[in-house]
Amino acid sequence: MALIKEHAIESIHSMHVLIENIFSGKHAEQDLALLIDYFADHFEMVGAAGKRISLEQVKGLFANNQGKMPDIQIEIYDEQILMQKEDAIVLTYTEKHTKDTGILIRRSCALIEEINGKMVWSYLQETFLA
Question: InterPro entries, alphabetically (predicted)?
């Protein structure tokens, strides 16, 4: 199965709906497991502050922050494919977090791969814009 760019872009949106629901506390019991299922076993990221973060740390971040941002709204826009091969896509997108305390905007670059017939996120790099 070749990766389809529209499916990769849709994964950005569906993943962030889950993230918003988990952080806001409006999530169903299975949402955390559904979110973690997006990530490859070897997933890692560099957060917007420049810190390297492992999959285990990402799991902890989501598990420990369930319901702790009840006012968060996440908007995804300006998605662009930078590179596409049959089994990998590199794309960028802008992510806007709106809360009562303010707005954070970051630009992200993600590597999405097909591994064993499944589309998974392998790498993510975030950079603060505002």
Answer: NTF2-like_dom_sf
